[in-house]
Amino acid sequence: KGGGRMKKILKLVAILFSTFLIVGCSKPKITKEQQDNVVMWIARGYEVKEVEFISFTKNDSTGTYILKVKINNDDSMVSTLSIFHYESLNSQDGLIALSPREDFESIIKKKRLNHNDTVSISNIKIKYLGER
């Protein structure tokens, strides 16, 4: 008779465990404004015509956000950006280095801007996440 109770407990444990798995691999949200800010960071250092946002994930063990972008619709210009503080995405001020560096050498600006210099992104085509 005691076997039924054990099955109930195991079932409960299984449900709890799967709930934790879902939470552990959560996909964070990134707004259009935040994506625009990242484009500004890139545009301060590089000659960009197009930025495509491929993915935005969070590494739960390090707490780092990973943003994958493709530049100028060129498959050889795909960079993975590490963002250590989610709040920094809310700021237009910033500079970011695309890596591996040699893949982006050809589009590095002759005169790089400072992290808070005004930069226009109105002429840059942006493919936002979730807009496929």
Describe this structure in words.
The chain has 132 residues and is an alpha+beta fold. Helix content is 29%, strand content 20%. It has a 4-stranded mixed β-sheet, with helices on one face. A hairpin with a 6-residue loop joins β2 and β3 (78-83). The longest helix has 22 residues, at 3-24.
Give a quick precis of the structure.
The chain is α+β, with helices and mostly antiparallel strands and 132 residues long.
Whole-number average pLDDT?
Answer: 87
Task: Work out the radius of gyration.
Answer: 20 Å
Q: In which order are the strands of the major sheet placed?
A: 3-2-1-4
Straight-line N-to-C gap? 56 Å
Shape: elongated
Quaternary state of this entry equals: single chain
Structure classification: alpha+beta
State which percent range the strand residues make up. Answer: 15-25%
Largest sheet: 4 strands, mixed
List unreliable stretches of 5+ residues: none
Question: So how many helices?
Answer: 3
SSE order: HHEEEHE
The residue fraction in helices comes out at 25-40%
Overall number of strands = 4
